[in-house]
Write a structure and sequence with these properties.
Rossmann fold, Methionyl-tRNA Fmet Formyltransferase, Chain A, domain 2, seven-stranded antiparallel beta sheet, 9 helices, 18 strands, 28% strand, elongated
Length: 336
């Protein structure tokens, strides 16, 4: 099969490699523009572009496919059997969807129609889902609204993070896309319309989404820690005003032993951190937003709207990740 592949991040690399290994003719790889990253603003090629070059495949970067007449003309000249899209980051216009002989197929990291949109992996973890999976679908003009071709499921571990689920689903996508192209081209896989009444939509995650609202239940905040690993991380402010990320935590009932109070988050620190994104709902209500430790200074807790969050690994601004006992040995806050 002659294929034009479109993708950008690491997630899409697995399916690109699988299609190449299966012997398909990948006539062109299209990825988003290279972007500057890090404090030094060094321009880096996208993971898909790097993979295409490593595999010796023709690759082209686009700013906005919808308005790139030269790129669209190139796709028409190739006359592909399929366009395969995996986390490309742009919605394809109808004139591009109509080009391939069999159709444009999207690889989506959820069991559609649930979790359409940009962040299905993070949302599945945040919602405490017990399973997720890969869906391949015929692309339509709407956002992830096309007919379903194939779905493969996998269970989520109790401590699943967005990062670990990302890796699992990327690996699962390898077999899914190869099966889909073979089965659909032979007439063995038939499109099934999505049940739109069961659809849910996920949005683009922003850095501010990781700021913790301590009025929520500890169980939700614990899922938030896992859903936003490795980015944007679950973030909050210590009573001494310093920000910190939570890398690992557990929702627990109030510890049996007596705890030492290390203070509470201050309103002015929350207002300063959130700036124009500040909302009154982020101010901890009575009993929430308090930092505590066990008497032996081995365990670290934050009080929430319901129960406690035990933080086992964290990272204070300007420092490396550390276990709770290491943090408590150097914490400047005064126990009461």
């Amino acid at each position: 099969m002659k294929i034009v592949f479109m993708g950008t991040p690491d997630f899409a690399v697995e399916s690109l490699e699988a299609l190449d290994a299966a012997g398909h003719e990948i006539a062109l790889v299209i990825s988003q523009e290279d972007k500057a990253k890090g404090r030094k603003a060094i321009v880096e090629k996208t993971p898909v572009k790097q993979a295409a070059e490593r595999l010796g495949l023709p690759v082209q970067s686009v700013h906005r496919l919808r308005t790139d007449e030269d790129c669209i003309r190139r796709i028409r000249e190739i006359a592909p059997d399929f366009i395969v899209v995996a986390a490309f980051g742009q919605i394809l216009p109808k004139e591009v969807l109509d080009i391939p002989r069999f159709g444009a197929i999207n690889i989506h990291a959820s069991l559609l129609p649930k979790y359409r949109g940009a962040s299905p992996i993070q949302q599945a973890v945040l919602d405490g889902e017990e399973e997720s999976g890969i869906t391949t679908m015929l692309m339509a003009e709407g956002l992830d609204t096309g007919d379903i071709l194939l779905q493969e499921k996998l269970p989520l571990d109790r401590k699943e993070t967005a990062d670990s689920l990302f890796q699992k689903l990327a690996e699962l996508s390898r077999t899914c896309i190869v099966k889909t192209l073979e089965g659909f081209s032979k007439g063995e896989i038939h499109p099934v319309a999505q049940e739109n009444e069961k659809a849910s939509l996920t949005g683009i995650i922003k850095k501010r989404d990781g700021f913790i609202n301590w009025n929520r239940e500890a169980s939700y905040i614990e899922r938030m820690v896992r859903a936003y690993t490795p980015w944007p991380n679950a973030v909050s402010i210590l009573p001494n005003g310093k920000t910190f990320k939570i890398w690992q935590a557990d929702a627990v009932n109030k510890p049996d032993e007596e705890m030492l109070s290390l203070g509470n988050i201050q309103r002015e620190d929350i207002e300063h951190f959130l700036g124009e994104n500040f909302k009154e709902e982020y101010i901890p209500k009575e009993g929430a937003g308090g930092l505590f430790c066990s008497k032996n200074k081995q365990n670290l807790f934050f009080s929430t709207g319901k129960s406690f969050l035990e933080i086992t690994e964290l990272q204070v601004e300007g420092k490396k990740r550390m276990a709770a006992p290491d943090f408590l040995r150097g914490y400047s806050g005064k126990a009461e």
